[in-house]
Design brief:
- The protein is an alpha/beta fold and 368 residues long.
- It folds into 2 domains: 199 residues, Isopropylmalate Dehydrogenase, CATH 3.40.718.10; 160 residues, Isopropylmalate Dehydrogenase, CATH 3.40.718.10.
- The protein has 12 helices and 14 strands.
- α1 packs across α10, α1 packs parallel to α12 and α8 packs parallel to α9.
- The chain binds 3-isopropylmalic acid and magnesium ion.
- Magnesium ion binds next to α9.
- The site of magnesium ion (MG) has 2 residues, from α9.
Length: 368
């Protein structure tokens, strides 16, 4: 069978290449079984690209990312590149890809696997069965607003500036993604803002309210201030179904939600753009970073990356059965007691990144 899909792998830095290798085993399995049929390319990004090409994201890599059906991204950054100018830092690669590919909707599901309800820092009766979806606006807000920069204010003073700005269409397009997801889930959206202090997010609240009333009257819409949302996430996270919020609040709240699941090493994400024809620009990445402290030790948890791959099967390739197979296999492998170091607990068996991936491939094969 000839390949009819294209995929670009960007492993990046730190544990990125390790979790990518682990995921590659699963991708190769699907390919061998003729259930994916994908052309796979690979490129450097972040610090690895700085070392090889002098910049975190080359035009060539960006063009390739824009031309494929989906991008799978590892992680970028590390102490080696910390001293670089802001515009040259590894993180710029990720921000550049998001902006240039117009990936305005970032989906960050936080699901607690039954086997891991004891790994969370919260009590099991608070997190067990948790299944929330955070939709983070990804190409606007304070991350990209102008003016920005650090300037000389004279007299030994300096001035650091960033701008929090949102326009109607930026709010509506990410809002629609959240409402559509809610329709397929439990029919509830909680929009998070700081409308008591920030005008740009008062606009956010007003536009979400209008969108809900005009286009999604069947979905229950509530609003919450960001500080309260942070508190509610650790007090009673199961009250949420879909949360939709700005770029920066989403960055913060999704790390918080990740810990509810036991480890940052468990959380996948999908960053999606606007559909044109049958194509949606898409980049999938684990929420965890490059974890330089454990890089190269084969101890990283590959499950966030593997779940990100499952999201790719679901959203980019419409392979629902295959996506469910990966998700169920992850649950089963955890149920069997295998754990990477980050989620290790008494009575479980600690395994390496590679061993976790191998166990997953065996489980997938068994269930297929
Ligand atoms: C994330 C990360 C990034 C962000 C960094 C690496 C630029 O924290 O994806 O959540 O702030 O968006
Ligand atoms: Mg973050």
């Amino acid at each position: 069978m000839t390949a009819n899909r294209s995929l670009l792998l960007l492993p990046g830095d730190g544990i990125g290449p390790e979790v990518m290798d682990a995921t590659r085993r699963v991708i190769d399995w699907f390919d061998r079984e003729n259930r994916l049929n994908v052309d796979i390319g690979e490129a450097l990004v972040g610090g690895a690209s700085i070392d090889a090409h002098g910049m975190p994201l080359t035009d060539d890599t960006l063009e390739r990312a824009k031309s494929v059906d989906a991008v799978l991204f590892g992680a970028v950054g590390g102490p080696r590149w910390d001293g670089l100018d802001f515009s040259m830092r590894p993180e710029r690669a990720l921000l550049g890809l998001r902006k240039e590919m117009e990936l305005f909707a970032n989906l960050r599901p936080a699901v607690v696997y039954p086997a891991l309800s004891h790994a969370s820092s919260l009590k099991p009766d608070i997190v067990s069965g948790l299944d929330i979806m955070i939709v983070r606006e990804l190409t606007g807000g304070i991350y990209f607003g102008e003016p920005r920069g650090i300037e000389d204010a004279g007299g030994g003073e300096r001035r650091g500036v960033n701008t929090l700005v949102y326009t109607t269409h930026e709010i509506l397009r990410v809002g629609r993604v959240a409402f559509e997801l809610a329709r397929k889930r439990n029919g509830r959206v909680c929009s998070v803002d700081k409308s008591n202090v920030l005008e740009s997010t008062l606009l956010w609240r007003e536009e979400m309210t209008r969108l809900g009333a005009e286009e999604y009257p069947d979905v229950e819409l509530t609003h919450m201030l960001a500080d309260n949302a942070a508190m509610q996430l650790v007090r009673d996270p199961r009250q949420f179904d879909v949360m939709v919020t700005t770029n920066m609040f989403g960055d913060i709240l999704s790390d918080c939600a990740a810990m509810l699941t036991g480890s940052l090493g468990m959380l996948p994400s999908a960053s999606l753009g606007a559909r044109s024809g049958d194509r949606i620009p898409a980049l999938y990445e684990p929420v965890h970073g490059s974890a330089p402290d454990i890089a190269g030790t084969n101890r990283a948890n590959p499950l966030a990356m593997l779940s990100s791959f499952a999201m790719m099967l679901r959203y980019s390739f419409d392979l629902q059965e295959e996506a469910a197979l990966v998700d169920a296999s992850i649950g089963a492998v955890l149920e069997s007691g295998l754990r990477t170091a980050d989620i290790m607990e008494d009575g479980a068996r600690q395994v390496t990144t590679t061993a976790m991936a191998e166990a997953l491939v065996r489980e997938i094969e068994k269930r297929a």
